[in-house]
Amino acid sequence: MTYRGMGRVVWEVAMTYGGMGRVVSWEQSKTDLREELRKWGVEKYALTTKKEAEEIGAVTVIFFKNGVSASPSCSRWGGEWQGPERNLRAIVGAVQSARLADQRGIGTLWAEIAKTLALPPGDDPYRVLGLTKEATPAEVRKAYLQKAQ
């Protein structure tokens, strides 16, 4: 699956589906996220801590899939900040949706749909963060947290 051109909006759309009405603990959602990423072949990722999420008002996970970085971020499930638990849960749902689309062979279709919802052309997240596309997940996370303050 390709993530280039996919912006925050696609993750906000994806997170609105899949039983998001229930609140699940931060720890349970972390476990579920790790399992979804593992099922997708992603072993290494960076996740904002609960404290960081509360301070900046957003939850972000950064990972690489097929050599391309992805950084789904959720700052307002349901249109407003409702705490890190629901926002992390939204990311778990979005990652699961992307994984299942990829598994079913419709990852390209999903990516094409996502492009129509992505940030306007020219809003390259690496440029915004002042990084190159070769940046490590740790460098991306650090730059993101610095920008978020």
In short, what is this structure?
By secondary structure, this protein is α+β, with helices and mostly antiparallel strands. It has 7 helices and 4 strands.
Strand content bin: 5-15%
Oligomer kind: single chain
User: Termini distance?
Assistant: 31 Å
Instruction: Classify the helix fraction into a percent range.
Output: 40-55%
Q: Provide the structure class.
A: alpha+beta
What is the overall pLDDT average? 76
Largest sheet: 4 strands, antiparallel
Uncertain regions: pLDDT < 50 for 5+ in a row? 1-19
Output the keywords:
single chain, 149 residues, alpha+beta, four-stranded antiparallel sheet, 7 helices, 51% helix, 10% strand, disordered N terminus
Structural write-up:
By secondary structure, the chain is an alpha+beta fold. It has one domain. Helix content is 51%, strand content 10%. It contains seven helices and four strands, in the order ααβαβββαααα. Strands 1, 2, 3 and 4 form a four-stranded antiparallel sheet that branches. Helix 1 packs across helix 4 (84-103), helix 2 (26-39) packs parallel to helix 4 and helix 4 (84-103) packs across helix 5. The longest helix has 20 residues, at 84-103. The protein is globular, with a radius of gyration of 14 Å. Mean pLDDT is 76; it is low at 1-19.
